Amino acid sequence: MKYRKMGSLDWDVSVLGFGCMRLPTKKENGNEVIDEEVAIKMIRYAIDNGVNYFDTAFPYHNETSEIIVGKALKDGYREKIKLVTKLPIWRVTKREDFDNYLNTQLEKLQTNYLDIYLFHGLSKRTFELVKKYEFIEKMEEAKTAGKIRHIGFSFHDSYDVFKEIIDFYNWDMTQIQWNFVDHNTQATTKGLEYAASKGIAIVVMEPIKGGFLTKTTKEIENIIENAPIKRSAASWALQYVWNHPGVSVALSGMSTLDHVIENIESANKSGINSLSPEELNIISDMAIRFKTKSLIPCTLCYYCQPCPSGVNIPKNFGMLNELLWVENREEFIKYYDYFAKTKEELNESRNNGNAALCVQCGECLEKCPQEINIPYELEKVHLVLGEGQEFSKVFKLFIRGPKIVEKEAFQIVGIEDVGKREKRNVPQMWAKFYEIIYKVQNRDGSHGLGISLSSKELLKKGEDRYIVAQEILKVEIIPEELIIEKFPAQKYAVFTHLGKLDNLGETFDFIYGEWLPNNSRYERVPFAPEFEWYDQRFQKDSDTSELDLYIPIREK
Ligand code: SF4
Ligand code: SF4
């Protein structure tokens, strides 16, 4: 096993951490329960082979994960590892809840102390609860009492919120979602590096995106087969995380002994900055393919469960997402019949209700770290799986996202047109741009930008500005047809338009007609630049083309 420093803590921690949220399960009296014997065998195998970081939480596996972990850590195993669990912050209603939960968790885990106690899944809203109930002081009291040794938080929100929380306290560690598909969302790479620069240990959760990054297509398999180094899809994903010098532990939620064996082998081959530029290119190639293969960004974390109406939310979303991958969709859709359709059926097969059982109570909304509009998506799931409506009509297959991205200040070199949009010849602008841009040094040629800008004066005349451009890293003398312009740091909602440009108008209709008007959190920043981002994924007139649209936003 390879070991790393755990931020500023004096620990040698295994690069592979065992996440106890996806332990093996079996059916018992119609209920899905942890297969205790197999789970204990897996946990002990991992410890015997060098894994020394274990992560669990109060709600995992219907509140039974901590109990099984406690059993597995008997017979001297507890002393060999660092044990971490979390306060379910969204459930607290009073200050005393802190001690009630902590004492219960210590009892379930059969231990006197936790190596780290985390606030579970902090966001803008739940961080207010930490402040309201003065829970940092409670953490410090627990530390003085010897019940916990270190203090941290896991996180699901945007970079701004992450930075605010990081700056609020002298944390020992933070646990963030980060993988080769999601490195620009939630805390983002920038957040990871900011926290690491302060000596805070970084534990990465969802390095394989809940197993999603192992579900390959023929295209992805080809990339893996033709790679110079032989690795499984899971191993590529884990190596990406371990490659970053700021990361101490990659947590994997392992469900079989084979997963444990494979991940340990992979960890043994890990290293900081050990991936070559060629390997990083392979990963970025895979990332592009994976991004086109998920309609609902559900990571199957089960935080939204149980649903009071019995809807098995992750299973419904998982099935819908899988529909994109299967060859014979009609056959596959028949499995939806196995979900309970009525309350009576639910009594026989609990927690496995179909999407139509959702009564839109909204109870699940705050629990979802991916901010999925669960009842809204469930309605669409049922239209497709239950009522047989056409997949491509119900889901907007020509758009993906948005992801929320913080873009740093940048400057561009480009050709500008000011005037009426309908009179503009954009292809001609690009042609002219490419005729002269090669003369400019120090520009980033990996992508082009089509930037739209407006102002009150231009708006009155029914005009706007459009610049075709590339980013420039250092300003120098440029041909006189070109302009240079600077743009400040800004938050953007990034939508990816999929396929040909024919229905680009529908994508904009969705953004401006549905997404922005119905968004309770974000609004567009007036007159800030909006731009199209063209990179190697863009292929004119191709069904597999991708084009990113950056819409400037701010919190309402
Ligand atoms: S909104 Fe629907 S899925 Fe969510 S908790 Fe309520 S009934 Fe369940
Ligand atoms: S819907 Fe959200 S909370 Fe529920 S399993 Fe998926 S990602 Fe997790």
Commentary on this structure:
This protein is of the alpha/beta class and 556 residues long. The protein folds into three domains: 3-289, Alpha-Beta Barrel (TIM Barrel); 313-395, no CATH class; 404-555, Regulatory factor, effector binding domain (Multidrug-efflux Transporter 1 Regulator Bmrr, Chain A). The chain is 34% helix and 24% strand. The strands form four sheets. Strands 13, 14, 15, 16, 17, 18, 19, 20 and 21 form a nine-stranded antiparallel beta sheet that branches. An eight-stranded parallel β-barrel has the order 3-6-7-8-9-10-11-12, surrounded by six helices. Strand 7, helix 4 (97-109) and strand 8 form a beta-alpha-beta unit. Bound molecules: iron/sulfur cluster (2 copies). The site of one iron/sulfur cluster (SF4) has 15 residues, from helix 16.
Architecture per CATH nomenclature, i.e. the level-2 architecture of the largest domain? Alpha-Beta Barrel
Bound molecules: iron/sulfur cluster
Could you give the count of β-strands? 21
Low-confidence stretches: none
Please report the number of helical segments: 20
End-to-end Cα distance: 47 Å
CATH superfamily of the largest domain: NADP-dependent oxidoreductase domain
Query: What is the rounded Rg?
Result: 25 Å
Shape: globular
CATH class of the largest domain: Alpha Beta
**What percentage of residues falls in helices of 4 or more residues?**
25-40%
- Characterize the biggest β-sheet: 9 strands, antiparallel
The domain tally reads 3
Mean pLDDT over the residues: 91
Q: What would you call the structural class? A: alpha/beta
> What name is given to the CATH topology of the largest domain?
TIM Barrel
Strand content: 15-25%
